[in-house]
Structures are given as structure tokens and as C-alpha cells.
Amino acid sequence: MSDTDGNEAASAATRNRSSSLRRALTVLDYVADYPDPAGASLTDIAQGLGLHKSTLLRLLTPLTDNGLVLRDAERARYRLGSHAAYLGGAYLDRLDLREVARGTLARLAERTGHTARLTLREADETVLVDAVEGSGPMPLRPRLGARRPLYDGAAGWALLARVDDGEVARVRQTVRTAARNDSAAENAVGDAAEEAAERLRTAVTAARRNGFALEEDGRAGPVVLGVDAAVLDHAGTPIAAVGLSGPVPGGASGASASALGAAVRAAAREVSHALGDRAGTAGGTGGSRATPPAPGSSGAGDPHRSGPTGPPARGPHRTRKGDTPMDRRQVISTQAAPQPVGAYSQAIVAGGFLHTAGLGPHDPVSGRVEGTSIAEQTEQTMRNLASVLDAHGLDFSDVVRATVHLQHLDRDFDDFNTAYELHLTPPYPVRTTVGADLANVLLEIDMTAVLR
Description:
The protein is an alpha+beta fold. Helix content is 38%, strand content 19%.
């Protein structure tokens, strides 16, 4: 055998080992995400990932030998082993939140032109621990180490939006006390304690609804907007906030405020994922988490499985044996998601994907078209899409394909593209942009996202 043949054989062996490792890690991820505390049977895993049992056993052997997966011989089920807990603990012990968030802050500042910041919660205060200046015409230079009461400012409101009502009530009482002690203090709005407490309630309610908090300050000249979303740790506890600050035309009511909010919300999710939050709802609306699917089974042809013909598996996705994609369709209809507007507006789960169709710039309650410019209508459309994704435990990072229908493709493309990309981070989903004859609206966007 020549040297060339030997090198090719060695290269092939390396590729095979890498492929086996990737598949074994997919199995480990599946076991970790399995919703039944008793674990998953061999059949559950094989059907969920589209693997033959003999192949699956070969992949499970090194995982069980090294304590990453535990086999319950009595129940014939597999669940995470103790060494997985050790590795998770070691990772968390070595985490530096500033280091984890630094890249996200830099990208956020670059994309928006505003100063991106990281704020920690310490008891009933927030502390600014890191910031990256934006490239805009008036970049803010925040003072690291600056402290504010938890009830004062967008970072604190975003954090309170992710705790229970009892904790919010306790902090509201703190506001009343502070207002009574010094009604002229900057952190007490108005002369009455109840006015200050009501302002906090309103701010937290809005943050829960939007997935981010907004703070407006025009005392020193141009209106400066603060936008923050909560960061969750591996236990789902809100420990910090990612935010932006800078002069924004129109303030909190301007069209760009919602785009900045969506960008901040996506950044908070990114940091939360790095900290081990697996629910994918950091910065999302309300305080609920996505409910994992109940145990079941699926055929080997599920496009959600890993392999060369589909995206990597991202957790259990199972359907009843014998189901077809048509059988598995389920219209999304929750209070958190905008209701379909018109006969062709809908969101459907099918074959491991969430498909939206016909969502445009309509108010989810009234059904009225929001905005007259392409930028304003794009913002409303992206808000509607974000709500549908969030209702299913997803965000724009899960989107793999988008089709954009523009009423005036030649005239509106550039302004649309600017508003659209504020909501996304590279690598962008595959996108097709086409002209369309739309009734009373400037655009509609259809998206396909991979279920987790």
C-alpha cells in the first residue's frame, strides 16, 4: 500500500471516529432532554433518533462505561449518569459571566450602534459590571460599578419580570417605603408612594408582555432609551440583564424601540444558553417555560432526527406510530401568540418543524394593520412572528428558512432589510424575497423553525 493510500485510510478512520462521537453526543443530548424522570427505553431513543438498536447500543456503551449515562437494569431505561452532573458542575464552577457575555455584548453594540451593557442583580440592587460602547454618533459611556435599586430602571424591571408575583409585591413595598422616606428622590416618581409602586407594577407587566423592559430619560437633552432583558442561569433563575442604552428617536414609543427590544431579547437568550438554561425562554414573555413533549415514539423517517438529510436533533420529538406529517399538524393557538388574521394566516407544527404562513403587520388583538412605512410594518410583523415562536419555546435562532413577500420589492427592499436584520444574528436563515400583490399591507413573512 502506498503512502497516499495509507493517508487516505487514516483520514477515513478519523472521519468515522468523529462521526461516531457526534452521534454519541446526540444520544447523550436526547437522554438529557427526555421528559420522563425514569429515563428513556432503548426503543424510545432508537425511534426518536431514527437509529437501529444495534447501532444505538454501540453508541451507548462508552457513555455508560464513563458514567455519562446510567442504565437502570430493572426498568431497562437510560438516564443521565453521575459523571454528567460532575461535568456540569465543573463547567458552572468555572463560568465567568462577564467573559461569557462579552462576545454577545460586542455583537449587540456593533449591530445597533448603541452601548451594550451587562447588569447583575445583587440582593435588591442592580450593578453594572460590563459595557461595550456603540459606534453611533452619541455613544454613552456608562460607569462600571454603578448601582441602582432593583425597582429603578430597565435592568431591574427585566429581572423582576422573571420572578413570581410575591417577590414583585415585596419589592413594590420597598418602593412605597422609599417614596415615603424621600418623595423628592430621583428613584421615586411622583410625590405619592402608591404612584411609585404603580409605576413599578406597570413596568414589570410591560416587561413580561414584551420580553424586555424599556426606560426613557430625557432630562439631560435628547431622549435616551434603556432596553434590557433578563439572563437566566442553568436553574432558570434571573441573575443578570443584557441591555442597550442610547439616544433613540421617538423614545419608547418609536418604531425602533421594539427592534432594539427584540435584539436585546435574543442576546439575553444567547447568554442564558451559555449559562446552561435549556428552556430557551430567557427574556421571553411571562414566566412560563416550554413544556416538554410526553413520551411516545416516532418513525425512523422523522426529519427532526440527526444525520446528513436533517438538522441535528435538539431533544425529544416524538409522535404516535403510524402518524404522517398531515396527522401531526397542530395549529398554535395560545394567549401568548397573535391569533391568525385572515383566512391564510396560521402557524402549524408538522414533521419536527413549526411553519408560519401569512403573518403580517396586524395588531394581534384588533387585527388592524400597524404602521404605514415598511420599517414600521416590518417591526410589527417580526413582533408577531417572535410571539408565535416564543409560544412554542423557540426564537429567531431556531428559524432555518424565511420567505418574504414585499408589496413594493424595488422600492422597499433596503428599508425592510435593515429592520429585518435587527432581529437576527448570523448565520441568517435561508431567505427568499419576492414581490407580491398584497391587500392593504406592505409585507408578509413566512418562516420555518426547527422544534426543540
